[in-house]
Automatic annotation (TrEMBL):
Any single Pfam family the record assigns to this protein: Acetyltransf_1
Name this protein carries in UniProt: Acetyltransferase (GNAT) family protein
Keyword Transferase attributed: yes
Residues in N-acetyltransferase domain copies: 117-252
Source organism, top-level taxon: Bacteria
Record GO terms (molecular function): acyltransferase activity, transferring groups other than amino-acyl groups
The entry's keywords: Transferase
Amino acid sequence: MNMDARIQQSVVANLRNRPAPVEVGPFVIGTDPTTSSPHINYATPRPGAAVTVGDVAALVTAFRAAGRTPRLEYVTSCAPGLEALLTGAGFVVESRHTYLVCAPGTLRTPQALDHIRLYEPATDPERAGLIGAQHEAFGGNPVASEADVARLRRQQGAGGVAVMAVTDDGTCAGGGGAAPPAGGVSEVAGIAVRTRYRRQGLAGAITADVTRRLFDIGVEVAWLEASGEDSWRVYERAGYRPAGRRLYIGSD
């Protein structure tokens, strides 16, 4: 299986791990009744599966039945004709991203940072602290809901990784995590640093620590996406390299 197919299959596995996944023809919709976020409730095709106009119509119907907005994320080479079918059905491209991958032999671990400890949250208050820091870093409400905490606890219980960066005074400065591995592959996501702790190498340290923890449990390939040039440079310094393209596309 080539890299694109491995990454796409890991997305399929991630969505099947949602609390209420729905399989519709060649698609898997990962739905979570506790949130309407389109970044959690979305669909993806199984790699290499044939897709028809009827399949797309059935997918939209399934989204409507679940009370969610139709949306997909996928590696484009694994479904080369899908974009045309989706745009023909009224979907609009949100963005296109290059994904990056890292293997054990390319991971680079930066020097430890003074006054910062990196560790996995083991209690719900710690999980809430991590999620609050991520929300604030991404411009959202810095208060974690019970559903947010339960979602992270469930991810960790399924084999996923979570890392929080805590200062000497007990403040969570940022953190990140990774999905439960599937087929030796895991997605790293949510790398976040609160504004006042940026430009100190913390994002790179968190990325490397999450990735190392994955490799320590036998993961062969870690992958992620960069949101801009700054994060791209951070990930490349940690040993990540560009590998393929993904599409984000949705409908009202």
